[in-house]
Amino acid sequence: MSSPPSEVEAFVRRYFERRSGPIATEDPGIYRATLPEALRPAFEGADEIRIAFSPEVAAGASRVELVAVGSYVLDRIIEDAARSGWHTVERLEATPDETARFAAQAIRPTNASLEVGSISTEPVVHLLFNFRVRLTTDERVDRFESILIDVGSRTERRTAPALFEERASLNEEGGPESVEIADAYRIACAALEARVESAVRPLREQAEALRKAEVERITSYFDRSVNEVLDSKVADGRDQIRALEGDRERRLAEAEEKYRFTGEVELCNVRTVRLDVTKADLMLSHRGARRSIPVEFDCMRVEVGPLRCEVCAAPMASPVLCFGGHLAGPECVKGCGFCDRIHCRTCIAAGAIATCSTCRRSVCTDHLEVCALSRRPYCPDDIHECAICGRTVGPEYVVRCASCEQRYCAVCVAPPADRCLTCRELQAAAPGDPAVAALRSGDPALAKVTKWRRASNQRFTVLLAKGLVWNVLLVVEPGGKIVVRKKVLGT
Length: 491
Known about the structure:
Elements: H1 7-19, E1 24-27, E2 30-34, E3 48-52, H2 55-59, E4 65-66, H3 72-83, E5 89-92, H4 96-105, E6 113-136, E7 140-150, E8 155-156, H5 178-231, H6 238-258, E9 262-286, E10 289-298, E11 307-308, E12 315-316, E13 320-321, E14 327-328, E15 333-335, E16 342-344, H7 345-349, E17 353-355, E18 362-364, E19 369-370, E20 377-378, E21 384-385, E22 392-393, E23 398-400, E24 407-409, E25 413-414, E26 419-420, H8 421-424, E27 427-428, H9 434-442, H10 444-447, E28 452-456, E29 461-465, E30 470-476, E31 482-489
Parallel strand pairs: 3-4, 5-9
Antiparallel strand pairs: 1-2, 2-3, 6-7, 6-9, 7-8, 9-10, 11-12, 13-14, 15-16, 17-18, 19-20, 21-22, 23-24, 25-26, 27-28, 28-29, 29-30, 30-31
Helix pairs in contact: 5-6
C-alpha cells in the first residue's frame, strides 16, 4: 500500500498542475515535470526536469532534482507561487449543521447538563502571512510558518495549517486597508518570533557549545606547537612562531564563522481570508449552580480550545461546575462525602467545604457539625448530640455515665462518681406515673415495688426501683424499650 503524499509533494503537484501541467511518473519515486516560463531561467532554460521527493531516491539516480524543504527546486517554486498571487482572497464558509453539532460537542462537563443557547456565524476578515524561516549554524534548519491574524481583534487565530493547502479563490472586494495590513504584519512578526523561539534557543546553545570546544581545541593545539618551537634548539624560531600565530588566528576566525548563528525570515505571501467564525453561548447547570460560557470557533478548525480552570488556569478537557458557580478541573475541586455538592478550591478557602477532625472526610456546610466545646468541625457520623443539654460535641468530649451507662457531653457528666446530670437529679416518682405503671404491669418482679425514683432528659428516662438492699436501675427509651437494666446498691 502506498503512503499518502507529504504536504510538500501535494503542494508541488498542485503547483505544476496549475502552472504547466501534471507531473508524470517516470520510475518509482522519480517524476518528470514541465517547467513554466517563470522557472526556466533558474534551470538554464530547460523546459522540463526530473524530480524526486525522497532524498534516498534522488541520491541514487542521476540528473534528478530533490524537492524537499530547503531544496533549491522548492525554493524557486515557492517564490514563483508567491509572485503569481495564489490564494489572494479566500472565503471559507461553515454549514449550519456543522455549527450546531460542534457547538453541542465543544464542552463535556463532568457534573452538569449542557444546553446550547444562541448561535451566530459571520465572516471575519483575516490576513494569513506565510513565512519561511531559515536558522543556520554549522547546520541549516528550514521551517514554514503560517500566522493568521484577525484584523478586527488584532489577535492571532490558531487554526488549521494553511501553507500547503489550496482552496477556491474568489474575486471579492473590500479587503483590509493598508494601515490594517501593516498592523497585522507587525502582530504576525511578534507571533512568529514567539513561535520559533523554542527552536532557536537549543540550536544557538548547541552551536555555542561546539564553538567553544573548537576554540579550546585550536588554542590548545597551537599553544603546544609554540611551546615546542621555544623548547627546540633552533637558533631563531621567531618566524615559525609568527607563522603559527597567523595560522591560529585564521583557524579561530573560521571556527567563529562556522558556528555563528544566523536567522533569516522571508515573507512568502499574504492572503486575505474571509473566515466564517461561529459564536455560541453554552449553558451548564445542575441543582446548585448555573453558568453561561461563550465559545468561539472557526470553520477551518471546528473545535473549541480547552477551557482553563478558574483556580489554577490549567487547560481542562472536562470542566466541573462547582456549587459556587466556578469552572474548575478535577484536581481543583472537592466533593462532600454525604451529598453531591462539589466546590472548587476558591470556595473551599471561603469555608464551603471542611474536613472532619476524626475521619478526615470532606463535609459541605449542609452536613457540617461544629463541636460546641472545641469549635472543631465534624461530619454527622462523628458528632454527638448530648441528650441532656443538646450540645453537639466531638468524640473527645463524649463521656459515659457510670450509673446509667449512656453517653453525654463532658459538661453533663461530672464527679463525684462520674454520674450524669439526669442520674443526679432522680426524684420520687408521682403516683400513677405511666412509665412506672408500664414496667410494673409488664414485669412481675417489679410489680411489688412501691418506691420509685425517676428523671428524664431529651432521649432517656432513668428509673430506680427501690428495694430493701438492692435497687434496680432501668433506662427506658420513649417507646418503652429498656436499654439498660441492672442491680445497684444504694441510691
